[in-house]
Amino acid sequence: MGDRGTKSRLLPWLCRYTMSAQRTRPVRLLSFDGGGVPGLSALFILKEILRRTESGEGGNGTIPLPCDCFDMICGTGTGGLIAIMLGKLRMSVEDTINEYIDLLETIFTNKKWPWKKARYSARALEQAIRMIIGKRAQDLGWPEAAIKEGLQLSKEDIGRRVKMKGNDQEHPACKVFVCALNSMSAGDESVIRTYEGHEEPDFTIWEAMRATTANPLLFKPLIVKGGKLNEKYIGGEAGHNNPIKDLLAEADQEFPGRPVGLILSLGAGQRDVIHLSPAGLIPKLQLRGVVNLFQDIATECEDTHQTVGERFLDFPNIYFRFNVDQGMQEIGIEDWARRGEILAHTGAYMRRSEVEVEIDRSVDSIKGKNVPMSISQAAGHREASLN
Q1: Would you state the pLDDT for residue 45?
Q2: pTM beyond 0.70, yes or no
Q3: CATH code at 358?
Q4: 384 found inside a domain
Q5: What local confidence, expressed as pLDDT, does residue 329 receive?
Q6: Domain that holds residue 354
Q7: What is the DSSP track for 33-61?
């Protein structure tokens, strides 16, 4: 009882101390592209980077939680699922890998009739993500998971209730956002956040995860009911599949005046040709539309990287982009059974000497062994600089 009481008295102080330390050190930012099953490669790369942060001198050998290492995490599409699992749900990389595999197997084995516009069942996706959220809410002891009036809600029912902006008092907040498109506002991009200060609907976590993955050629749009008008959200992949620009703009608003020490952008594999599994009687024009869309998305990701990378020519140890460029061409966005191949290709990529060097440099940046730049410079405001 004494130990528990001591812990409860120390916890607020420890949280304030940790948050104070986070506010004074350079900001660390993490971004995930969308990409379906090949997005596993981003998690494998992140796991290796975090492993190296604790494997050297002074490390304890325990891989840190990404939510404790990064100040802001974002993603689009399935990258948005990953961002929420790591940041909002405070999951380890290993647990996220396992849940991600199970989730993709569930949704990509639930094909709809070929004459339907969307290829996969949105209901199966919604049920699966609500189960993940409900389980984590129980594990973390969130209020939504508490037994009320002698009744314990099911995991899925708990997962229906938890808000993106719910407050977790025991841990300093890692800010998380995902990207979607609001089809009711001429396709304007919507940023769905876990943090306050912006006018936007009060999303539940499952709604945010559905909105960012609601590519209209794979899943039906998400309808969010509120007020006099319903909002219709579709996935944010088209034009925003690499959300690094959004990340830097958000960080500039949320961390004004702070230096930035690391910006980590993780892709889902470079693919010259986008492969989709056979869809039976799916109309050829619909299939062609899916393929063309994802080819545009693949091109946009690297074009965005090249544009953003020019901002960091004078600060070579700030911005890092890792994206497996060999072996992923034949792995489709739905090929959940080929995770072993993804691991093998990602391992081969990370063993290349030039990639090894880049990973080690990113680890040094996590440890603060670099010269930081201002967050305003990183966001593209060249006139700003650190004294």
Answers
A1: 98
A2: yes
A3: 3.40.1090.10
A4: no
A5: 81
A6: 30-378
A7: ---SGGGHHHHHHHHHHHHHHHHSTT--S
